[in-house]
Amino acid sequence: MTATDKILDSAFNLFMKYGIKSVSMDDLARRLGISKKTIYEIVENKKDLVEKVIRIYIQKEERDVSQIVKESTDAIDEMLNIGRYLIKFLREMKPTIVFDLQKYHPSIWNIIETEHFSFIEKVVKNNLVKGQKTKLYRLGINTDIITKLYMANAKELVNEDTFPNQEYPKPELFKQFFNYHLYGVASEKGLKHLNSKISIS
User: Fold this and answer.
1) Stretch 35-52: mean pLDDT
2) CA angle 121, 123, 126 (to 5 degrees)
3) Which of 33, 61, 83, 99 has the highest CB neighbour count under 10 A?
4) Which residues pair with 137 in a beta bridge?
């Protein structure tokens, strides 16, 4: 692991544990046992640090999700596995991270909303098409509309005004969302298949 990798990896772990706003460059330097000057040889400032960390996380998640898609046996298995992957991440994440990004780093949050959400949208659309081809999903659903509804709902789940984390912890919220989506699109055949699987927990 290079010096850059160590700095960005440590920053990611601190952000996950304490949130973004709560972590200072001094905190990161102490965690690594190095000077801030060394950190500033890698990043320009905290904003640059946050952007680099977020971009690395996005790349990792997209690789992981692509691997899940490749290894899953069918459309329902694929969505269940993606759901479990996301919920595991949410359980390890400080709930304030999304709020910190939206309020203090809007340009970086915009990267997630444009680049990363575009990737997720393709995954969802392809999954719906795959599910219809294997008759696990209802043939009558419009995959374009359902994909747009999925993405709109997913974005709303991180809206603190609608779903304050103290009342609606993100892991439980996304668990309900994934199950809601799957039971909504599943055909009779798909429902039998879904009910035979271990649900997202």
Assistant:
1) 96
2) 105
3) 83
4) 186
